[in-house]
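Workshop exercise sheet. Pairs work together: one partner reads the sequence aloud, the other fills in the structure field after running the prediction. Swap roles for the next sheet.
Pair: D.N. / O.F.
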Amino acid sequence: MSVVTITPAVHGLRGTFTVPGDKSIAHRALLLGAIARGPTVVHGFASGADNRATLAACESLGVAVTARDGALHIDGRGWDGLRAPATTLDCRNSGTTMRLLAGMLAGRPFVSRLDGDASLRRRPMRRVLEPLARMGASIIAEGADGRAPLRVEGRPLRGATHVLPIASAQVKSALLLAGLQASGTTTVEEPASSRDHTERMLAEFGTRLTRGPRAVTLAGPQELRGANVRLPGDFSSAAFLIVAALLVPGSELRLTDVGVNPTRTGLLDVLAAMGASVLVEPEVGNGTEPRATLIVRSVPLRAARIGGELLLRAIDEFPILCVAAACAAGRSELRDAAELRAKESDRIAVMAETLARLGAHVEELPDGLTIEGPTRFAGGLVDSHGDHRIAMAAAIAALVATAPVTISDADCADVSFPGFYDLLAKAGGQ
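Structure field:
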């Protein structure tokens, strides 16, 4: 466990930076490359802990992955190239790894066991196990109340129509992976649009599918072909630098090659409602994911009320959005985020605790927070609870505090943003 102390910024943040490759898209590139026939090359892979868990799982399933020339090379042998793992697949702290593997392995003719750390064992898995069971999957939750470890007893699957009660890209992706190896048609309908990285990448790998506004359909079984994938910078990582530049007076940051998939960029719309103007300069790139250079300058923020589908599009950015709200003038309300109570930490409760420790006026609600601003943060000790997004949000708050902020278990930031503290220092944060 590491401890990092961040001192208040003494001048504006400046410079041009590239954030690590997108974590969510990297998971999908690895798994689709593993089941595709032919070579797949993944450029821009960031070796955060979550992505390393997925990479290790692929190797344990008999897939050869090598790093050379700045890229990952996956020797895909198709569905039949997967082999029964000799040991339990350790998903570490990655819910994406566990849920997507559950769908991918549900139709394979062998038994697999998926496990993770204590945090992952506390997170709900029934939301993905129940719809997979309707496709004929046999997955036994060995933990209490439908939680990990999971024993996946592979068997033939049949297509099904799923109407999800809650929009979830992870559940949707697991069902599509199962549908690729099932007999018949699989449809996934959601009440709101979740991130669509899986659908976009399936098309890159040659999958035939049909997309509607909130539904996707594919017929199985299908075999994928290898692809050349260039990962954009992770918008959720860029979010911390965006808010930092808005809050620290005299700042101007340029963030290049950032993924700006519209299902992910709700934060930009939220910040616009708070008075910010982030300049988005589209870039021409390979693949199906839009990308852009983002130019951010400091500006005073005003309070906003955020919920519904807009909050869903900024769900991973909730911790740093809370920091922005605490610095904005007025009373902000962030609602419809109840699912965050079952992340790496209870992000609603932990952000309420973090902001209060730093002197903000905050009220915890069942599905979010109300936050009074503007706050001049005090210094002190913040517990990250081992949650990468909490640690990085606290680091940004420290830049506009009146005294240094010490963050416990700070190296958890490496889960999604390897080198975060070094990049922050280069930009002018201490």
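Discussion prompt: The chain has two domains: 3-21+232-427, 23-218. What would you look at next?
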